[in-house]
Specification:
The protein has 437 residues and is mainly alpha-helical. Helices cover 78% and strands 0% of the residues.
């Protein structure tokens, strides 16, 4: 059954404010807390690191609770609603914090925000998995999901400069404006989702116990898919962590020009998502992922020939790199829906929430590892960010190597792991028929 565009829009709507949280946490909030709010730089780094460390185990716990939820409102709606309320409280505490805030209060605000974020993210993606049991329609569902995510990031990128331009304010004005955008749009988007999007009844009998949270990792196909996701996230993660350094120190672009390349990257990815949905329909989801990873490795390698004095060419190159980078994130989630059906059929118990929680935890690791891995290596090779183009030739070459080779190699490794994925359209059709009966 083909899902209407109106229903897909309602499903994807929460992605706009949810995705808008991720970028400020990495780009805007740490320097804001260290400068405007007056916290020690080392304390800020420790707070944001500890929050992410504690946050990763939250996802499997939330997934377990989602799977065990029963009631008249379904299993996903209560957690979407709960997560929205908690997340709004955390956003208010984090984005509206005032100078003089203590490290403990800063940590507590971030933890509350991430608790709500986990509840919304896990329940929302798991809900998307059961909107349809059709192999190709699931690509379309998560294609809308990914497009809305990228649109949310593009919108939030524009908020700080727009707020400062309109009000004549400072950095605090931009941070507060981002918080207000999320606080206003999140409840409206989630309400639209809750009232329009249907839930599929649970399939199977009693679900898993708390002790089974990590037991799902014994499933070979789930481990394989999680490895594909980890490698596919690490590739652009390392490239993203080093992007500003590369364009400023190795190519001589200004910080403003280097930052603007992200707009071209995300915009191209947003418009490319429907094209990958069509390709996945023609050749299968795992083959489309393989092609996207090969293309990403090629585009990342081609950045070595980006000129130092030609902004249009550099912007076009970043837009081209954004086209394949968008595909793995949403096609892997569509593949996980097929895997969840296969495991439900094999075990007699549906564990969709737990499966998507595991994927969310791995995705967060893919975001956290690149900075922790690549920055120390840059220090070892002698690269100093403050020196910019003044770094030694060997340090610049080391930076260029780190920006190109590991991301390309990880993308190719991910393509090899996903090769030969056994659940295709025919297999999923048989599984869906068996589950329906």
């Amino acid at each position: 059954m083909r899902i209407s565009r109106g229903r897909l829009a309602a499903f994807a709507a929460p992605c706009l404010p949810v995705a808008a949280i991720g970028l400020p946490v990495v780009v805007h909030l740490p320097p804001y807390y260290a400068s405007t709010l007056g916290l020690d730089l080392g304390i800020v780094g420790l707070i944001f690191f500890l929050v992410r460390l504690v946050d990763v185990p939250l996802d499997p716990i939330v997934g377990h609770l989602v799977d065990r939820t029963r009631g008249r409102f379904g299993r996903f709606r209560p957690w979407m609603g709960f997560g929205t309320v908690v997340m709004m409280a955390g956003v208010a505490a984090v984005f509206m914090a005032q100078p003089g805030i203590s490290p403990l209060l800063a940590f507590a605000g971030l933890m509350v925000m991430y608790l709500g974020f986990s509840a919304v993210l896990v329940s929302h993606t798991a809900w998307g998995a059961v909107l349809s049991d059709d192999y190709h329609e699931r690509s379309r569902i998560f294609g809308w999901w990914q497009t809305a995510n990228l649109l949310g990031m593009l919108i939030i990128l524009a908020v700080p400069p727009a707020a400062v331009l309109l009000t004549g304010g400072d950095k605090a004005t931009g941070v507060h404006a981002m918080g207000w955008v999320v606080l206003v749009t999140l409840p409206l988007a989630v309400a639209w989702n809750l009232f329009v999007v249907p839930e599929r009844p649970r399939i199977g009998g009693e679900t898993h116990r708390l002790g089974d949270i990590f037991g799902v990792l014994r499933l070979p196909l789930l481990r394989r898919l999680l490895l594909v996701d980890l490698l596919a996230n690490l590739a652009p993660g390392i490239g993203g962590a080093l992007l500003l350094f590369f364009f400023e120190a190795a190519r001589g672009y200004s910080p403003a020009e280097a930052s603007s390349f992200l707009l071209f990257y995300f915009t191209a990815g947003m418009f490319a998502a429907p094209l990958w949905v069509r390709l996945a329909r023609r050749i299968g989801k795992h083959r489309a992922i393989m092609w996207s990873l090969f293309a990403y490795a090629l585009c990342q390698s081609a950045t070595l020939v980006i000129p130092a004095d030609n902004f249009p060419v550099a912007a076009a190159a970043m837009a081209l790199a954004g086209v394949p980078a968008v595909a793995p994130a949403f096609l892997l989630r569509a593949m996980l829906a097929d895997l969840s059906d296969a495991e439900t059929l094999a075990s007699g118990s549906e564990r969709t929430g737990l499966f998507y929680a595991a994927l969310a935890a791995v995705q967060k690791l893919g975001y956290a590892v690149p900075v922790g891995l690549s920055y120390p290596i840059l220090g070892i090779i002698g690269f100093v960010p403050a020196l910019g183009e003044g770094n030694s030739e060997s340090a610049i070459w080391g930076l260029m190597f780190m920006f190109v080779v590991p991301p390309a190699a990880l993308a190719l490794a991910s393509a090899l792991v996903v090769r030969g994925w056994p659940i295709n359209a025919e297999v999923q059709a048989r599984n869906a028929e068996a589950l329906a009966s």
